[in-house]
Amino acid sequence: MKHLTITCLSIAGWLLLGEIMMAPEVAKGATTYQAKVGAETPSESVEADAFFPNELWILEGDSIKWTFVPKNEIHTVTLLTQPPGGAEQVRPLAPPPAGPPFVVQGVSCTVAAAASYNGSVCASTQSGEVAPATFTVTFPTAGNYKLVCLVHTDMNGTVHVLSNNNTNQALLHTQQFYDQQGQQEANEILLSGEALQFGSLFSPSNAVTAGIGTIVATGGGLQYGAVVRFLNQTIFIHQGQSVTWTNLDPTEPHTVTFGTEPANFIPPVPAGLSAPAADGTRTATIACSPAPAKQCDSDFGPESNPAQTYNAAVFLNSGFLQAQAPDRTGDPQLPPGTTRITITFNKPGNYYYHCALHDVDGMVGEVVVLP
After folding, report:
1. Count of structural domains within the chain
2. Which of 132, 220, 293, 336 is deepest in the core (most CB within 10 A)?
3. By percentage, how much of the chain surpasses pLDDT 70?
4. Contacts of residue 118, Cβ cutoff 8 Å, sequence gap at least 6
5. Does 26 lie in the same domain as 114?
6. Whole-model pTM?
7. Where a domain ends, among 192, 219, 243?
8. How far apart are alpha carbons 323 and 247 in whole angstroms?
9. Residue 345: CATH number of its domain
10. What is the maximum span of the chain, computed from C-alpha positions, in angstroms?
11. Domain membership flag for residue 356
12. What counts of helices (H) and strands (E) characterise the chain?
């Protein structure tokens, strides 16, 4: 999660979002419904972080088979414990790269496996190496279940599991309905993201938009779209000038990272920064290695350069640039989020950088510093 592409979604692109008109799989009198996890534009510049559809009605004993759609963006399908009359389970940390190694208490259900959810923890993970993965969960007990992604805070949905009687049968929908509903939800998010992407291309000089996005709501929960691009992708400045990156996404974190990442790199942790500005903006002055000091191309080459090795003297990482979560009644007020970093360039050269979370989606950029 390498170049900027502005594209309209083609018919072929939409077909990648999911096959419609799929009939439910039936086994032993129960139904397995098909659903999707995430969607993206063909260029991977816009990610729809959502469950599609975001709300499903099924009967006791039915199952849902989720298919992970994105090529590289990581998601989880997670159902946390919901004890009757008791406290809800504390939300676990996200898996890497957004968090530490993935550990949950209770039953851990792996990708491409099936599980029976009866009130214990049930979670799956997906990385770019395992796509397209699937995850099937059977629901033996009636109830209303919240579905979450541990990676994306504002990505959730609802599964209504109904008792198997004639009255509740009227609340059910067909697989065709769920396919069409899910595709409509995905299309709206992706088209909105492409509009945001185009509108953010015209940034002021010496300024880069480090991601932008939008949150939408359905009757079942929240969905959002994230533009995973630096806008403008290539910026030209003169020696001694600075560039400011601002993350305009309401929920998705991004990093501004120069140099080759070290082993066991943790993206949220800043590296190589100076003291923050009075308004909280993170700051840094980028450096070249001791020799040669005139050009920086070899120090900050593209991440794909096999000759590039980690150099602590020139490595720079902003840490997470992210909007703060909303304040909640009864909880302490949260401080403002850290959404900006300003970096000064005192040596000419071509400085390549990337987002440590979304470089696999093509979120990379370049600062060309002229003498």
Report:
1. 2
2. 220
3. 77
4. 140, 141
5. yes
6. 0.82
7. 192
8. 8
9. 2.60.40.420
10. 79
11. yes
12. 3, 21
Across the range 338-355, mean pLDDT stands at: 95
Whether the CB-CB separation of 72 and 360 falls below 8 Å is answered with yes
CA atoms within 13 A on the CB side of 84: 4
Confidence class for position 96, pLDDT limits 50, 70, 90: low
DSSP secondary structure, 185-197, as one string = HHHHHHHHHHHHH
Distance between CA 320 and CA 338 in Å, rounded? 8
Report the alpha-carbon angle 152-354-151, nearest 5. Answer: 10
Task: Please report whether residue 200 resides in a domain.
Answer: no
Name the strand (E) or helix (H) holding 76: strand 76-79
Question: If you search the block for the tokens 């840094």, which residue do you land on?
Answer: 284
- Rounded (to 5) percent helix, strand, coil in the chain: 10, 35, 55
Structure token digits, residue 298: 């070899």
- Residue 59 φ then ψ, to 5°: -105, 160
Instruction: State the pairing for strand pair 242-248/340-345.
Output: antiparallel
DSSP 331-344: SPPPPPPB-EEEEE
Q: Is the pLDDT of residue 185 over 60?
A: yes
Whether residue 313 sits in one domain with residue 248: yes
Q: What is the pLDDT of residues 279-308, one digit of tens each?
A: 999 999 998 876 555 567 878 888 767 777
In a domain, 360, yes or no: yes
Residue at 190: amino acid letter: L
CA pair distance 132, 128, nearest whole angstrom: 9
171 and 288, same domain (yes or no): no
Strand partners, 156: 148
Residue 300 identity: F
Angle at 295 between CA 263 and CA 366, to 5 degrees: 65
In a domain, 4, yes or no: no
Cβ partners under 8 Å of residue 121, min gap 6: 78, 79, 80, 81, 89, 92, 104, 105, 106, 107, 108
Domain with 22, as residue range(s), is 11-192
C-alpha 53, offset from chain centre = 18
**Which of these, 220, 161, 210, 188, lies nearest to 321 by C-alpha position?**
210
pLDDT value for 73:
86
